[in-house]
Amino acid sequence: MTTAPAALSMAIARDLPALRREIAALRRRAASVALVPTMGALHDGHLSLIALARQAAEAVVVSIFVNPLQFGASEDLARYPRDEEGDLAALRAAGCDLAWLPTPEVMYPPGSATTVEVAGLSAPWEGVQRPGHFRGVATVCAKLFLQTGADVAVFGEKDWQQLAVIRRMVRDLDIPLRILRGPTMREPDGLAMSSRNRFLSPAERAAAALLPATLREVAAALRAGVAAAPMLQAAEARLRQGGLVPDYLALVEGETLQELEAARGDGTARLIVAARLGTVRLLDNLSV
Ligand code: AMP
């Protein structure tokens, strides 16, 4: 596939009338539109999704919205990193055609009462740690899909459960949009890139490399047919020794997220992990 030439200029929309105008303008010159939803503080992981979007469609819309609905009361909404100027420069350089920057009031006007709940898939793992999180994610993604009318939306494998929830929602609600997924971009020591990594102290940042290293080791053993439970217990203990506090480390069926006792040898299982380090929660996963 060929990549579309970089956009000559990038439009910015901050409210729905502007978004509708800009989408209509895009539609006059582009046969297909891809959407990359983000919360900003963009890094190379986000940019890799934008590159995929440019291959998949003639025009690319990137949304930046720190979605209050997906943050719990005790979570880091207020301190979530925000860098609009840096993000817009990165988007221009990446060939984004339209940046969609709604405020919370634009996204959720007073009286907003409708949410989307993807039962089952939203409950385990992150759902236990962050009650209501996936209701917020599903609701905002449903709105972004309807607002933009995109043909394709691109999500990262980094947030595996989120990807599963969104795919289920799109199927269940017959949303005419294709979901594409991009592989996890990593730092040289293997740590998955994340907007929150900037909150790690130098010592924590060094300790964080234990997470992907442990995942790789466990995944290799599981691929070789070792039973999951004792492997996972030992790995959790190693993470604790290294200063991480695991919330979960599990082998699951990739689509249903149901726990597995051993890998199946067909690459459909996923090793998923969340661990706290200082004030940061690190998420990662690997195919097994
Ligand atoms: P966020 O801004 O963290 O909400 O992420 C926006 C999108 O980027 C989501 O689809 C994430 O899964 C994806 N993403 C985040 N980190 C990475 C990464 N390291 N590699 C690839 N995609 C990522």
Jot down its keywords.
10 helices; 6-stranded parallel β-sheet; alpha/beta; Pantoate--beta-alanine Ligase, Chain: A,domain 2; binds adenosine monophosphate
Q: Please count the beta strands (DSSP E, at least 2 residues each).
A: 9
Helix content: 25-40%
C-alpha end-to-end distance: 29 Å
Spatial strand sequence of the major β-sheet: 1-4-3-2-5-6
Low-confidence parts:
none
Strand content: 15-25%
Count of helix runs? 10
Shape: globular
Using the coordinates shown, work out and report the CATH topology of the largest domain: Rossmann fold
Q: Quick one: CATH superfamily of the largest domain?
A: HUPs
Number of structural domains? 2
Q: What is the N-to-C succession of helices and strands? A: EHEHEHEHHHEHEHHHEEE
Overall mean pLDDT score? 96
CATH class of the largest domain: Alpha Beta
How does the helix and strand content classify structurally?
alpha/beta
Query: Can you summarize the main beta sheet?
Result: 6 strands, parallel
* Ions and ligands: adenosine monophosphate
Identify the CATH architecture of the largest domain.
3-Layer(aba) Sandwich
* Estimated radius of gyration: 19 Å
